[in-house]
Design brief:
424 residues, mainly beta, ten-stranded mixed beta sheet, five-stranded mixed beta sheet, 53% strand
Length: 424
């Protein structure tokens, strides 16, 4: 009796193909050929690097199904606190700029005292390094200003929401807007800006006076208005939405998500004629969560986004999406997620980590060994750890961002540690 070898692969379009390799060798559909070329760049020691693997346009299906090839950055953490007595940074919020990204984050970046501040740093589009780190907002007469969520504008201005404490012994969001230089806040010149009582937002239609809104103040701008997605530790759970024309006075709308989770970011995408809103949440634990809405006013139950890598990021306290492209333009990408995490349940030794949504690369050695990409260096570079220094012959297989859909296979290549290849 002749047995059939059955190989399963998902090809572009989502169809599952069964390859009956022995019975019908001439009937097997060939995987698309991919151009993967050797470059002169050197890969980190012990790795083969493949570039050109950044995520494509936002695909709501893989988020709704929870099939995401999120690759951890080799730099773990991606950004650590600066030296000093108080070292604890989190609440990353990355805004795309013409030169790369402006990263906003909060807490203690090497401070002499334990008073949370808002900081900024700049980085290139590949998140290769960070520069110009400095405090931009300090608490002044308050104890803390932290948990920042940021938006940018084409003119160069930024709008921020952050948590201020104490406001009558509670946490409240405050709104900050820069001029087009991105450096002067709420009408005053120079940095750092000192929080004023007038910066704290107001809200009608909600029991706002008694609300405790700590680290759950997400800002989205659409249709000429600011949307505030927030949680309230005194509400019994859930995520809510309010709307403002000026960023300062909000009108409450409704609960948009039932159940647990602390909302930390919401981003909007246009796909064809449809619109999608991606929400990210945490619970100060080992997991992050995500959920996708088609209208921004009602979200289905959240599902797991990722879990921690080890003890160093065991307590995840914040997240921020990394996007490329204009919010209102088709083709906008979600290329990764930054998150604040630390090793201790006191939540005061955090750093910033990164995971990148990438195409999945596997080197299929002719000897049967399969070497997948396990680490990244920014959104567009994936690293495959070969088991030894000897040259190996085989082919690169490239799968879509769901980690399953086969996009194609390269011609046979001979590879060794230290080489970099470009997916073209």
């Amino acid at each position: 009796m002749r047995f059939l070898t059955m190989l399963h692969a998902r090809l572009p379009g989502g169809c599952l193909v069964v390859l009956l390799a022995l019975a019908f060798p001439d009937k097997c559909p060939a995987a698309p050929a991919l151009d993967v070329a050797l470059t002169t760049n050197a890969a980190p020691a012990g790795y083969v690097e493949v570039t050109g693997v950044e995520a494509g346009a936002f695909d709501p299906r893989i988020w709704q199904e929870g099939t995401l090839n999120l690759v951890p950055d080799l730099r773990s953490p991606l950004l650590a606190p600066r030296d000093g007595k108080f070292r604890n940074i989190y609440a990353p919020s990355a805004v795309e700029t013409p030169g790369g990204y402006r990263l906003f984050y909060g807490a203690w970046d090497g401070l002499p005292t334990g008073n949370d501040c808002i900081y900024t740093a700049t980085t290139d589009a590949g998140f290769r390094e960070f520069s110009n780190r400095h405090a931009i907002i300090v608490p002044g007469s308050y104890v803390h200003v932290c948990n920042v969520n940021a938006l940018g504008s084409a003119a160069g201005a930024f709008a921020l929401l952050a948590t201020v404490y104490p406001v009558k012994d509670l946490n409240k969001p405050a709104f900050f807007r820069s001029d087009n230089t991105g450096t002067n806040w709420n009408g005053l010149r120079g940095e750092p800006y000192t929080v004023q009582a007038r910066d704290v937002i107001a809200m009608d239609g909600y029991a706002y006076t008694n609300a405790d809104i700590n680290g759950m103040n997400v800002l989205l701008r659409e249709d000429g208005a600011y949307r505030l997605y927030f949680g309230d530790f005194r509400s019994g759970g859930g995520t809510f939405r309010a709307t403002s024309r000026d960023g300062k006075r909000y009108a409450f709308e409704a609960k948009v998500l039932a159940g647990p989770g602390l909302v930390n970011d919401v981003k909007k995408f246009r796909v064809g004629a449809a619109t999608y809103y991606l929400m990210g949440l945490h619970e100060n634990g080992r997991r992050l969560w995500q959920t996708v809405s088609t209208n921004g006013a009602a979200f289905p139950a959240a599902r797991t986004l990722l879990t921690n890598l080890g003890q160093a990021d065991a307590h995840i306290v914040a997240l921020g999406w990394v996007t490329r492209g204009s919010q209102e333009s088709p083709g906008r990408k979600l290329v990764g997620v930054l998150y604040g995490a630390g090793p201790v349940p006191s939540l005061d030794r955090n750093s910033i980590y990164g995971r990148w949504l990438q195409k999945r690369v596997v080197f299929a050695d002719n000897d049967g060994t399969r070497v997948p990409g396990t680490s990244a260096l920014g959104p567009g570079r994936q690293l495959l750890g070969l088991p030894d220094d000897k040259p190996r012959s085989g082919r690169f297989e490239v799968h879509a961002e769901d980690g399953v859909t086969l996009l194609g296979v390269s011609e046979e290549q001979t590879v060794r540690r230290g080489q970099t290849f470009q997916l073209r």
